[in-house]
Amino acid sequence: MSKITSAQVAKRAGVSQSAVSRVFTPGASASAKTVKKVRQAAADLGYRPNVLARAMVSGKSRIIGLVVAYLENQFYPVALELLSNALQARGYHILIFTAPNSADDVDVLIEDLMDYQVDGIIAASVSMSSPLAERAQHSGVPVVLFNRGQESGAFSHVTSANRTAARAVTEFLLDGGHSRIAHIAGWQGSSTGRDRQAGFLDAMQARDVQPFAMVDGMYDRAVAMACTRQLLNGARPDAIFVGNDHMAFAVLDTIREAGLTPGQDISVVGFDDVPMAAWASYDLTTYRQPVNRMVEAAVNLIMAQIEAGEVSPQKLELDGRLILRGSARIEKAETK
Amino acid sequence: MSKITSAQVAKRAGVSQSAVSRVFTPGASASAKTVKKVRQAAADLGYRPNVLARAMVSGKSRIIGLVVAYLENQFYPVALELLSNALQARGYHILIFTAPNSADDVDVLIEDLMDYQVDGIIAASVSMSSPLAERAQHSGVPVVLFNRGQESGAFSHVTSANRTAARAVTEFLLDGGHSRIAHIAGWQGSSTGRDRQAGFLDAMQARDVQPFAMVDGMYDRAVAMACTRQLLNGARPDAIFVGNDHMAFAVLDTIREAGLTPGQDISVVGFDDVPMAAWASYDLTTYRQPVNRMVEAAVNLIMAQIEAGEVSPQKLELDGRLILRGSARIEKAETK
DNA sequence: CTGAAAGCGCTTACAG
DNA sequence: CTGAAAGCGCTTACAG
Lengths: 336, 336
Fold this sequence. Notes:
Two copies of one chain form a homodimer. The first copy, chain A, is of the alpha/beta class. Chain A has three domains: 6-49, no CATH class; 61-160 and 290-319, Response regulator (Rossmann fold, 3-Layer(aba) Sandwich), CATH 3.40.50.2300; 162-289, Response regulator (Rossmann fold). Helices cover 44% and strands 17% of the residues of chain A. Chain A has twelve helices and twelve strands. Chain A has helices at 6-13, 17-23, 32-45, 51-58, 75-89, 103-115, 130-139, 162-175, 191-207, 221-232, 245-257, 291-308, and strands at 63-68, 93-98, 120-124, 143-146, 156-160, 181-185, 213-216, 239-242, 267-272, 285-288, 315-318, 321-323. In chain A, helix 1 (6-13) packs across helix 2. At the A-B interface, helix 4, helix 5, strand 2, helix 6 and helix 7 of A face helix 4, helix 5, strand 2, helix 6 and helix 7 of B. Chain A binds a DNA duplex through helix 2 and helix 4.
């Protein structure tokens, strides 16, 4: 029931409270004898410094606020785990805020987050409003957007080179001899959804072929299934480029439900390469986002901003690569 | 760059700093006039109370430490999201610690967690050592184990009635006319793994049938696949009861890889009923853990312990139910 | 190297 | 209802 304080340790060790503090402060300056006495007393009493008190005076909480949504999409738990490990390794910890998908509420969340005096904020899969951007700036709390871009120059962000990537995916489909290509895009309210769609259109226009269809799957399984049923009705596409793997699994399930075989009757390509994409039942051809490197970059960015105080926002776009599996035909149609 | 403090608000509002504090304290006692002036000044300045400072003096951080592992198993992200939402709704937030699966390191983690003066700890899918149990007890920090039991009476926990549930699953398989039933158990170092295995054995013994095989899948996909390949070699089982869905998906993939059809050539039943189990490609018959109720119970328990100071540990075991899908044969063999 | 003292931003008795 | 004051558990100049 008792919280041991540095004062109690000091008393037992026969030194001042400041001495105890110094022993537990990395950049210490204490004699070997003092260190020994203090460590002994601390061990006897089971003393551990109160991180909150330290945070108050130092102004550094060693807490990073993480805003995350879409946890049903395997990409995010994976990223969360990597993020947490990377941060833990540097002595930071994550205060997690699960976000509603609507924008206003995210603002409220971030304000709550800032009340905890977090040293930085990583916002995954959410956008932030401009007023909020200003508040964060003003409070001097660095913000890094993860897997989401930001038009305003306020924040740093790290994403894949979504537009280029989507273009590459589309070209792959075109090269494979597909000509009736549909795109089930990610939520158009998100930069990733818009960028990937733009990349799709880039490639189609460059080859002068019309999209078979283009709809917004909202990054939602049920919506993606409904879109797919629609698409399968009547004249069918011969390929569907889906805005992320999570929706692509829904597309695959729906295609099979209709008695068709993915990769044979219709090609499907996703985006992310979550672990499940490699599982035999899905065997999804997809564009791999370099999640390891993305996490590393996000952590480095936020650390740099925390340490430097101010760093001009950086926009990082990393390259991934297409992973070929069974859900999409590779060879040209004529060579079949 | 500036953190606004209550003193600054007080000055602008022309009241004392205590008055400002009262206005922002729920159980306040301030005149309407004071409230008005203070709120105005606070709004002008963009003031928000420093949660850390409040935590220091009140001794309540409104932070719950969550220890979690196995994030690749969809059960945990789902639980995490529910937990976070439930806690957020009550004004608490989660400081997350991703756990290595080995026991010693968990202890270190929990100590780190306690340094943040968390008001309570929810440990999902991990066990805690006895010495640590004592420390937590001693510090007066309530601990609730989630989806994992604890022999020692030290902590509260909430789980499914794993043994009974596993027994029911096994009986279902037996009733379905299966006689060569294998069990790929969860990690035997975990209570859930042991309890489910015990339930499996209960049912088998009651019917006087020998297990076809019993192995430890370690809650790991790769291990489960290896076990399944082994099982498929030579005389095959006609059913496999798998310790959780995450492994069951691996089993299903492996069975198909061998050219067999789950639910036809061999029945498979999982445990959890994660969302993916319902997806057409897996269509997994499984025992549904009542995750909503489990989360609710865990949150209520921890809240009760925080508010009451001391509450004797409670062991909650909730009932779920078997969800029938296509991966396991239902009718008796003879009626086929 | 070391101790006394101030102060981080709050809450909470204590008087009035 | 309200203000002055003490104190939560630390870190960090400041003297010595």
